[in-house]
Amino acid sequence: MTPFWSRDRHVDRAPSLRARAAIVRAVRDWFHGHGFTEVEPQALAFSPGAEVHVDAFESRRKDGELRYLHTSPEFAMKKLLAAGEEKIFFLGKCWRRGETGPLHAEEFTMLEWYRAHEPYERVMQDCVALARVAALAAKADALRWKDKICDPFAEAEKLGVREAFARLEIPVVEALTHDAFSAAITKIEPRLGSPTLTLLVEYPISEAALARRCAHDASAAERFEMYACGVELANGFGELIDPLEQRARLVEAMEEKQKRYGVRWPIDEDFLAALARMPPSSGVALGLDRLVMLASGARHINDVLWTPP
């Protein structure tokens, strides 16, 4: 492939890269304008998270201890909430080994933010607002991916996971194994986020290791994902702050990871200790590269990365 520094290739990518710069600037302005503080968690983490199917890059210290390039700054940011921060955001690099393709890069840019003492419906509103911010910054009238178009300025659709499954006559959510649930979601995703943004809400508790249970349904979690043009852009929670329940869910997730992949990440005891002091909060992670792609009309994630592999 022609290197990214080739003049011809750079000329082709330049419009998307200029859109990226404008979106990054507008996103930061939006957060500062809404009273958030930008934070910079360390990229080397004791434990990279709770994801069963995510692989992390490892770094071994001179004393032999393993550290991991963070797959998300989630644990560190929740510790900052425990310390007393209330409205914080992160805009920076994360790493997930083996994730490559038109919508995936092993090194990518994450936009992640948290609101203390706010329900998760509030960060849903943030997600919709930021999709509009990106479109305006890129001077786009819509978000686009393949043959799909999404109007981010129209009212977003809010759709329960059970309702989405029922539309396709898929078996009851609670009866599905994780693999069956994942397979079903891939059938549903292409139908979401067109012609307007879709907020898919209330995932089964088995699919939300870090989210609190819904008050009206203990089998469902306060987890949502935002879609545009069939593409997942954001994943957010009403945050679980019960350290005992969180420990049990982390142990369960790591046992499943060990069973499937022969590896497990350490349990971050410092994170669990911080949860006991963390206030009720909501948080969300949004893939900035994907948002730039849809706002700029790019066809591959490498077209919106300044120095792609």
Characterize this entry briefly:
The protein has 309 residues and is an alpha+beta fold. It is built from 8 helices and 14 strands.
Task: Describe what you observe in this structure.
35% of the residues lie in helices and 25% in strands. The chain has a single domain (7-304), classed as Bira Bifunctional Protein, Domain 2 (BirA Bifunctional Protein, domain 2, 2-Layer Sandwich), CATH 3.30.930.10. The protein is built from 8 helices and 14 strands. Strand 3 and strand 4 form a beta hairpin. The radius of gyration is 19 Å and the shape is globular. Strands 1, 5, 6, 9, 10, 11, 12, 13 and 14 form a 9-stranded mixed beta sheet that branches. Strands 2-4-3 form a 3-stranded antiparallel beta sheet, with no helix packed on it. The chain is of the alpha+beta class and 309 residues long. Helix 1 (7-33) crosses helix 8 (288-296), helix 2 (74-83) crosses helix 7 (269-275) and helix 6 (243-261) packs antiparallel against helix 7 (269-275). It starts with 6 loop residues before the first helix and ends in a 13-residue tail after the last helix.
